[in-house]
Specification:
Rossmann fold, eight-stranded mixed beta sheet
């Protein structure tokens, strides 16, 4: 099967943020589908004139579309280039290589994919990765998405053959947007279990219990709630991995906000911001922790809890989105009501004091990931969905 994966974000990815997650996800899907014998092309916007027009990576082809500025550009500024992006794909696919199915990623990539095939019988599958309307509901004033995103996502949801959700919460949101339930399938992200596993190096630590959070520093990522919860957790350190690089933390407004909050809460000596680290170094950080916390106000996917669980670390998280789907309460960790800072703190304190429970949760977490969340399993599910939409169109 010929598969075209379309992402309007540029390559290579930056050190942190949602674009990196999307890019990594697409790269792994492309590689796994190639292993299964499919002919895969990935289409990204070309943001650097020095990059080659095409590259062959891990058996699949990356095609860099020469549309828009030759610089890294915010997503909202790419919307005017969607018609041109779509037309470029239409012309490209009129040649020797025409996809049997097109899979759009993120809302701008999906718009370009849907535009490209609107006069053809090629089916379109769409993964949003996040939804503006759901972010707006959970983040409120902290939502920083462009105004046209929500109506364009709603229109896109009606133009695709199948929407791939990454959590059951996202399924509910898509059906509220107007999709029929039969047109939505859940395919959670996979985990590289060769890299994320309990065996290997761990970051150094002292005798104190270690709580780890991996994610952004901006409002909505949950670091504010976690710092406040630390007032209920004594003799433990909180390590926050994410945000800008370590050398830029001093001038970062969100890092200053979190440090000021820690000082007001009286836990400044317990909180340490590490900054962004390369993805290949995150397993060592997971392995160094007694527990990983996932407390965002919005989480369409469960990448962080899955990576932590694959490393044998129990997870405490808010019961929403991908966190609620991946963490089994009282089996691989603990779930608490979203926004309940007191419950978060009390749960952390109790879990840190119970070595046997953490040990049992960690072992169960590894088993759960290896049984249900490998990339091979995710690619196999996508393969069957592609076959379904292609057969339906024919």
């Amino acid at each position: 099967m010929r598969v075209g994966l379309v992402c309007a974000h540029a390559s290579p990815p930056g050190p942190h943020g949602p674009v990196v997650g999307t890019h990594q996800h697409i790269a792994r899907v492309a590689a796994e589908l190639t292993i299964r014998g499919h002919d895969v092309h990935v289409y990204e916007r070309r943001d650097d004139p020095d990059l080659p027009a095409t590259s062959d990576i891990a058996g699949y082809r990356v095609v860099r579309v020469p549309v828009g500025p030759s610089t890294r550009t915010p997503t909202a500024d790419l919307v005017p280039y969607v018609p041109e992006f779509g037309q470029w794909l239409t012309d490209r696919w009129a040649g020797d290589w025409t996809p049997d199915v097109v899979h759009g990623h993120f809302w701008v990539g999906g718009l370009a994919a849907a535009t490209a095939v609107r006069q053809t019988t090629i089916p379109v599958v769409q993964t949003f990765h996040s939804l503006g309307v759901e972010q707006l509901r959970h983040l409120g004033r902290a939502y920083a998405g462009p105004g046209e995103r929500i109506p364009l996502e709603r229109a896109l949801s009606r133009a695709v053959d199948l929407a791939v959700a990454q959590s059951t919460d996202e399924v509910d949101e898509l059906t509220r947007m107007g999709l029929q339930r039969a047109a939505v399938a859940v395919v959670p992200a996979g985990v590289d279990t060769a890299r994320f596993n309990p065996d290997g190096e761990a970051e150094p630590r002292d005798h104190q219990a270690r709580i780890l959070s991996v994610g952004g520093l901006t409002a909505g990522h949950g670091q504010d709630d976690l710092i406040q919860a630390m007032r209920l957790v004594s003799d433990a350190e909180l390590i926050i991995v994410g945000g800008p690089a370590a050398g830029e933390l001093a001038n970062d407004p969100d890092a200053r906000r979190l440090r000021d909050l820690a000082a007001r809460c009286g836990v400044a000596d317990q909180v340490r911001l590490v900054g962004a680290v390369p993805h290949e170094q995150t397993p060592a950080w997971y392995r160094s922790a007694d527990v990983v916390v996932c407390s965002p106000r919005y989480a369409s996917a469960g990448r962080v809890p899955l990576e932590a669980m694959a490393c044998g670390v129990p997870v405490v998280g808010y019961a929403l989105g991908g966190v609620a789907d991946t963490v089994v309460d009282e089996v691989t960790g603990r779930l608490v009501p979203p926004g309940d800072v007191r419950s978060l703190g009390v749960t952390l304190r109790r879990l840190l004091s119970d070595d046997a429970e953490r040990f049992a949760f960690g072992h169960a977490a590894v088993d759960r990931v290896r049984c249900s969340y490998t990339w091979d399993r995710a690619a196999g599910t996508l393969e069957r969905l592609y076959e379904r939409v292609v057969s339906h169109r024919r």
